[in-house]
Each structure stands twice: as structure tokens, then as C-alpha cells.
């Protein structure tokens, strides 16, 4: 056998080399395109910039570049700029409670060096000429040259994540989703960064650059919202108003005025009013901040949406809410991306005391139909925003004790020698063992392991033998017993084999456990997906028709019942979905859509999908962003009419699944209605060939398990190899 050349013993604990540590930790700090852009934008804001420009190439796959007009980097800081845990924001841990900048850990640039090819062009306010710095993956300067630049800093990332091959491949494969998430994160900084002009543009693979979003540097959050989402969104917004709790609320919770904290926090922001049609179909325009820092306060998000649903339960509101609290009460050092935030003094906020409510009242002297107020009894429970750590339960397979007892050999049992049952802890004064003590020992020997009394603990038993108040203490003598690991292993293996055989039999004969019951539809569908492949439908044998509504089929030993109307309806529905091109009706005057820059780009990239849905557009490439697309034709079909709301829904669906053919929900409803009317009805007698045709069709569609209205298409009835106990 060849000897190992390593002098270290196998499994020895050693320190990981610094380069590997750097790569491992960097991959935990920067997780996505959104994180990378966020870190660079935050650096610009922290540097006092009033202009930040984000440029992407091929949605960030090839290049991410962020420029600002901040203070720039001093020459003395060039070497430390990208070193791990080097920062100018704090000196020791105590500074953390007073930190007011976005960054403070000194991790971002160092991590980006490890994950990409990073270069920096910077010019400090005290210099006349800028400097270009090129860094290696360890964060060391490898090239330094003069470079013309105005005051500020430009950071360029080429080939993000290419040093992590698996992540890089996933990053490229999911780049559209990564890009959409990045835009949403960037929108939050655009909203909250008043006085800072932020722009973002993307250059596609053909070399054409288009602006994605842009703000004007206004000092108003409302203006920033309008710059990103357009004037239509502004028309629906109402400001949050913080009001003191009413006497009724104070009385309801048994509080006193003196118990209420004074000015513990303040809130500012906007929410869309509750009229139907004003809200959104998803939570894609909800932005929350604590001390101007974008974050994900789950409980605040939940309560705002729940209250909004009291007035418009079919939609979600636009929300931009900033909660300001004293900086020493905030802990932002919770997660690498700093989006999870906790507060100190959590015990101040009792769950039964806090309440957020939206009072839906009519505003005086205004045409608005509603006003939303945020009323707080004592405070929003910011400290409890994050869900608690989930309980981890580990099921560890083991051989049952009773099974071991059933298979154990009597030759290995402890002999029932009275001497072996006698110990120094006795009941009677003469040293003999009382009958009660013997009985207790005998019963104790049959306790499960986890329930046995502690036989080694010190205890005493009174001289009276009529009552036993405590477990009897025994100290048994040790005797050698015959034991064979091989034999024990064999017994355990036989038990496992019996279990496996039983499981195989169960799998063979009981693959379909769900009953024909509305409460088990989901389970039944999952079983069918698992056990039935599409090519099996054409192999099914037609047994006959039941009750002029159900086709009975046989596949090997399994009998199935198929709903003839539901299955034909699903086939017709999917055919309509795939092949129907809706006809459009021309508008007299082209209609402005008031799309955001992001939505506009999604529409342009997926314009063929919109055309298949009956929408036609006039595209003016040279027009201003958010005004390049106008609607010129709408789909119509008898009594069905469609509009801009359906376009917005399609845009949202395509932002998550770019390039995938999809339909607005109202088009799906129309197709469902059509497919229902043209399908075989219950009560129609079918020939064997007609039934076979319906069954074969099930193998030709994507989702054959339920009709468009949710009714199941087929269920398992029985297996002929066994008699079902159900």
C-alpha cells in the first residue's frame, strides 16, 4: 500500500489558507448582482455624491460600472481601499451603535475583488488629476496610472462571479431575474436618496444603450417616486400621517397616557389609496426603510398589507415608508446585506400593546375618496420584525428496541440469578430484598430506555414495605456475556431488509394513497404527477363509461376514473392558450401607457408575446425614456374588453419569466369559458374510440391533472393485485 506523503494525520484540524478563506467569505458577502450594485451605490452616497451613474453591459454579465461625484479617495488610502475589514467609518465595536453611513464593515470592495476583475478610477477633491488602480483578487494594487477624471470615483467590475464557476454559470443562466431584482433594489435607493441624482442604463449585446431609470436629484421623496414610476403613480398616493392613539384605543389595551413612550419613532412616506384598480396585482412596489436604510421588515410589511386588504382585498398597495428611530437603538449588523434590522430594548414592545391601523376616512375639502392614517398605540414593533429561528427537528432512523428484543437470542440474555439482582441498596433492615423492591426492579427492567428510572442515583427507601415512594436504587455486579458484533450486525441487517421489503410492497401496491375526496385533491394530484408520465396515457386500456360522465381505464394493474368533461376542457384550454392569436381593434388616438423605464424595456424585449395577446404598439426609439411606447390596438373578443391593466399584468409576469409565452388572467378566463362550452358534456354517451381520443389527448398537454376551473380530471380507483382496505 502506498504511504501518504502528508505528514499530517488523516482528519487533522488545520487552519484554512488565507486565500481560500478570502474566497469563501467573499461569496457570502456579495450574493447577487443586486448586492454588488447596492454596495457600490452606497459607497457613492456615503462619499457625499450628488450624482451617481450605474452602467451595465448585457444586464451586468459583462460589466458593472458605478460612477459618482463624491469626495474621491485620498492617495494615502489607495493600498487599503480594497483590503478586508479596512474602513474609515468606525474604529472599534463601540462605534457601531452610532454609525450613520450605509457601509461600515470594510467588506464590499474586498469581496468584489475576489469575485471579479475590479478597477477604480478616482480623483480626490484635493487633486487635479485622477488615478486608475487595478487590483488583484486579494485586493492588492497591481497597476497604478494617472487618469483624467473630475472629482469622484468610478468602480468597474468585469465578469462578476467568474472566480466561482458554479455560481457564475447560474448567474448567467438567470441573468434576467438577477437584473430585475437589481432594478428593484436600486429603485429603493432612488426613492430614499433625496438630493442625489441616480441614473441606470444598460447596453445590450448589439451595443445599444438604453436608460432604465433616472431621478432628478430632488429633495422630495414624492418627486423621486414620480421620476421612477411616472405621474400616474403619483396621482394615487396619500401621505402616511402619524397620529396619537385615541382614548378608546388606550382604554381598550388598558394603558395610561403616562405609559406611552414619547416620540420613540417617527414615520414618513406614501401609500396608494384603497380604491379598486389603483392597487397592484403584487407587492412589486413596496419599499421600507429604517433611518433611510432600505430593509425588509417582514412584520411591518405584513401588517400594512393586511390593513390595506380591509379596503381592497384583491390588490396590494404601493408603499414607501421610512421609520426613523434613534441610531443607538438600531442594530444593522445582522446579515451581510444589512437588510435585516433589529432594535435594542425589545422588551419594551409587547405584542398585545402594539397596533398599526389604517383609518379609512374622507378628507375634508378634497375630492379624494379616502385617506390613510397610520395610528400607533405605543410603537411599531420594529425589534420583532424578523421571524424567530425555526425549530430544527431531526428524525434519525434507528432500529426499534422491540424489534431487537424479538430477534434477540436467549443465549445472550442476562441469567435470572437472584444474586445478580441483589445490591447494597435494600429495603429491609436485615439486608434482604423486600417483595415490593423485587417487583419494582422487575418492572424497571421492562421500561423503555428513555423512561427508565435513574438506577445509579442515591436514594433511600423506608423500612415500610407497603409503599414505594421512589425508584429503587440497584447496583448490579458486572458479569461477562457472550457477544458478537457480527451477529448483531446480521440481526440489524435482517431487520432493515424486512423493513425495505415491506416498504417495497407498500410502494408497489399502495402508490396511490389519496382518497377520492375534495380535501385530498392536492395529494392525489401529486401522486399522479409522480406515478403517471405522459406516454402512459396512450397505453391505457378503455374499460368503459360510467354514469355517462366518467371514463374507466386500466394501466397494468391500476384502474383509473377520468372525468370526460374536465379532461376535454383542459385539452381545449391549453390548445387555445398555445395557438390563439387574439385580434386587435385599432384605437383612434395612440394611448400613452405611463410605464416605468424598467417596464418599458420588458415590454420591448417581449413585444411578440404582447402581439399574440392582441396588443399592438407604436415604438419611437428616439423618444424620451418612459415615453417610447404608445398603445395603438387592444384585443377584443365579443363581450370581453382589455386595457392597460392587462398590459401591466403581462409585464409583471414577464419580469419573472422573460421570453415565456403567457396570458393575462382575464384572457385565461376567456379561454376557460370558451373551452368549457366546446367540450364534451356530462351525460353524453361516448364510443370506445371517442373515449380513447380523450385519454390520448391528456398525454399531449402540459398539465392534465385538473381543468381550468380547478376540477380534477382523473383519480385512481383500485389496484387489481390487492384488495384495498379503504
Measured as a percent range, the helix fraction is 25-40%
- Extract low-pLDDT stretches: 1-6, 89-96, 345-431, 440-470
Task: Tell me the structural class.
Answer: alpha+beta
**Mean pLDDT over the full residue set:** 75
The 3D shape can be described as globular
Cα distance spanning the termini = 60 Å
Number of helices: 19
Strand content: 15-25%
Strand order of the largest sheet: 5-4-3-6-2-1-7-8
- Radius of gyration, in Å, reads 35 Å
**Overall strand count:** 26
How is the biggest beta sheet arranged?
Answer: 8 strands, mixed
Give an account of the 3D structure.
By secondary structure, the protein is α+β, with helices and mostly antiparallel strands. Helices cover 30% and strands 19% of the residues. It has 19 helices and 26 strands. The protein has an eight-stranded mixed sheet. It has a five-stranded mixed sheet with strand order 9-11-14-12-13. It has a four-stranded antiparallel sheet with strand order 19-20-21-26. The longest helix is centred in the last third of the chain and has 25 residues. The protein is globular, with a radius of gyration of 35 Å. The two termini are 60 Å apart. The N terminus is likely disordered.
Amino acid at each position: 500500500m502506498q504511504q501518504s506523503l502528508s505528514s499530517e494525520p488523516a482528519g487533522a484540524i488545520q487552519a484554512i489558507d488565507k486565500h481560500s478563506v478570502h474566497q469563501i467569505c467573499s461569496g457570502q458577502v456579495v450574493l447577487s448582482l443586486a448586492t454588488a450594485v447596492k454596495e457600490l451605490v452606497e459607497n457613492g452616497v456615503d462619499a457625499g455624491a450628488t450624482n451617481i451613474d450605474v452602467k451595465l453591459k448585457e444586464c451586468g454579465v459583462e460589466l458593472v460600472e458605478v460612477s459618482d461625484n463624491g469626495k474621491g479617495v485620498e492617495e494615502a488610502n489607495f493600498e487599503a481601499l480594497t483590503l478586508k475589514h479596512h474602513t474609515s467609518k468606525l474604529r472599534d465595536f463601540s462605534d457601531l451603535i452610532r454609525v450613520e453611513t450605509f457601509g461600515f464593515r470594510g467588506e464590499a470592495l474586498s469581496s468584489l475583488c475576489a469575485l471579479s476583475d475590479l478597477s477604480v478610477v478616482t480623483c480626490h477633491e484635493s487633486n487635479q488629476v485622477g488615478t486608475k488602480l487595478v487590483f488583484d483578487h486579494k485586493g492588492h494594487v497591481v497597476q497604478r496610472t494617472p487618469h483624467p477624471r473630475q472629482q469622484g470615483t468610478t468602480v468597474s467590475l468585469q465578469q462578476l462571479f467568474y472566480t466561482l464557476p458554479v455560481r457564475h454559470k447560474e448567474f448567467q443562466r438567470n441573468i434576467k431575474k438577477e437584473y430585475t431584482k437589481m432594478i428593484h433594489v436600486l429603485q429603493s435607493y432612488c426613492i430614499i436618496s433625496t438630493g442625489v441624482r441616480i441614473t441606470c442604463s444598460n447596453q445590450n449585446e448589439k451595443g445599444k444603450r438604453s436608460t432604465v431609470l433616472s431621478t432628478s436629484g430632488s429633495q422630495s421623496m414624492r418627486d423621486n417616486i414620480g421620476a421612477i414610476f411616472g405621474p400616474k403613480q403619483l396621482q394615487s398616493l396619500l401621505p402616511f400621517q402619524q397620529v396619537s392613539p385615541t382614548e378608546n384605543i388606550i382604554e381598550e389595551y388598558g394603558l395610561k397616557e403616562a405609559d406611552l413612550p414619547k416620540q420613540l419613532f417617527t414615520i414618513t412616506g406614501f401609500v396608494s389609496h384603497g380604491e379598486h384598480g389603483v392597487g397592484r396585482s403584487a407587492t412589486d412596489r413596496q419599499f421600507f426603510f429604517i433611518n433611510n436604510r432600505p430593509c425588509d421588515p417582514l412584520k411591518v410589511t405584513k401588517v400594512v398589507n393586511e390593513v390595506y386588504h380591509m379596503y381592497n382585498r384583491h390588490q396590494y398597495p404601493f408603499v414607501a415608508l421610512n421609520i426613523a428611530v434613534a441610531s443607538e437603538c438600531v442594530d444593522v449588523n445582522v446579515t451581510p446585506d444589512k437588510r435585516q434590522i433589529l432594535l435594542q430594548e425589545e422588551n419594551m414592545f409587547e405584542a398585545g400593546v402594539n397596533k398599526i391601523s389604517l383609518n379609512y376616512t374622507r378628507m375634508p375639502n378634497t375630492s379624494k375618496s379616502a385617506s390613510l392614517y397610520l395610528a400607533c398605540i405605543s410603537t411599531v414593533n420594529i425589534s420583532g420584525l424578523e421571524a424567530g429561528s425555526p425549530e430544527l427537528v431531526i428524525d434519525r432512523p434507528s432500529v426499534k428496541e422491540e424489534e431487537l428484543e424479538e430477534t434477540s437470542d436467549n443465549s445472550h440474555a442476562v441469567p435470572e440469578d437472584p444474586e445478580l439482582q441483589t445490591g447494597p441498596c435494600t429495603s429491609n433492615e436485615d439486608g434482604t430484598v423486600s417483595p415490593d423492591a423485587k417487583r419494582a426492579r422487575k418492572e424497571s427492567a421492562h421500561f423503555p430506555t428513555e423512561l427508565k428510572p435513574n438506577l445509579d442515583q442515591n436514594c433511600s427507601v423506608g423500612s415500610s414495605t407497603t409503599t414505594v415512594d421512589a425508584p429503587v436504587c440497584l447496583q448490579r455486579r458486572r458479569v461477562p456475556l457472550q457477544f458478537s458484533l457480527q451477529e448483531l450486525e446480521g440481526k440489524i441487517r435482517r431487520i432493515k431488509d424486512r423493513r425495505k421489503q415491506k416498504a417495497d410492497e407498500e410502494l408497489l401496491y399502495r402508490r396511490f394513497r389519496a382518497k377520492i375526496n375534495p380535501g385530498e385533491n392536492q395529494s392525489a394530484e401529486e401522486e399522479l404527477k409522480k406515478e403517471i408520465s405522459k406516454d402512459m396515457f396512450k397505453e391505457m386500456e378503455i374499460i368503459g363509461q360510467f354514469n355517462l360522465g366518467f371514463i374507466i381505464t386500466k394501466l397494468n394493474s391500476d384502474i383509473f376514473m377520468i372525468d370526460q368533461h374536465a379532461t376535454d376542457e383542459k385539452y381545449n384550454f391549453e390548445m387555445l392558450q398555445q395557438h390563439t392569436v387574439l385580434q386587435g381593434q385599432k384605437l383612434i388616438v395612440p394611448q400613452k401607457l405611463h410605464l416605468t423605464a424598467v417596464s418599458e424595456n420588458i415590454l420591448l424585449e417581449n413585444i411578440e408575446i404582447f402581439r399574440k395577446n392582441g396588443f399592438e404598439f407604436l415604438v419611437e426609439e428616439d423618444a424620451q425614456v418612459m415615453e417610447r411606447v404608445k398603445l395603438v390596438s387592444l384585443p377584443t373578443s365579443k363581450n370581453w374588453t382589455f386595457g392597460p391593466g392587462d398590459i401591466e399584468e403581462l409585464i409583471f409576469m414577464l419580469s419573472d419569466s422573460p421570453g415565456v409565452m403567457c396570458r393575462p388572467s382575464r384572457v385565461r378566463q376567456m379561454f376557460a369559458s370558451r373551452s368549457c362550452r366546446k367540450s364534451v358534456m356530462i351525460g353524453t354517451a361516448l364510443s370506445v374510440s371517442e373515449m380513447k381520443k380523450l385519454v390520448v389527448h391528456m398525454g399531449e398537454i402540459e398539465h392534465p391533472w385538473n381543468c381550468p376551473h380547478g376540477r380534477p380530471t382523473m383519480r385512481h380507483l383500485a389496484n387489481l393485485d390487492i384488495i384495498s382496505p379503504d
